[in-house]
Amino acid sequence: MTKEQIFEIINGMQAPVMSVATVENGQPHVRGILLYKADENGIVFHTGAFKDLYKQLITDPRSEVCFNAGKYQIRVEGKFELVDDVNLKREIINHPSRKFLQGWIAEQGEQAVIDFIQVFRMQHGKAHVWTFEDNFKAKEYVTL
Fold this sequence. Notes:
Layout: H1 3-11, E1 17-24, E2 27-39, E3 42-48, H2 52-59, E4 62-69, E5 72-83, H3 86-93, H4 102-108, H5 110-116, E6 117-122, E7 126-130, E8 141-143
Antiparallel strand pairs: 1-2, 1-4, 2-3, 3-6, 4-5, 5-6, 5-7, 7-8
């Protein structure tokens, strides 16, 4: 499978939730996170600065994410980097998929929300696509 096909599957998901794995003090942690987008610029999501996820990725940016999309399970390993881009934050909080932020923006103001959210991006992750049909085949990796 090509990286373009992988991005098409990920971005075509009805509910683009990915499981994100981190490690803190040798203990693994996994949680579901709403994807913002995945493309040639990387896998992008946001969280709050007070969240454990934020602290764990700042301490150790290595991670693996997993998307379950129909018959495909797509796992991507790599490192997340913190992205300090006000324009990207503004794009995210005003995106139609982020309507859940609108009440918070109305209460706190757009700038407060922009200051609060933290954006992470994984570039050049190593992806493996799994299906039942390929269960016993050797893993093949695609660099995203």
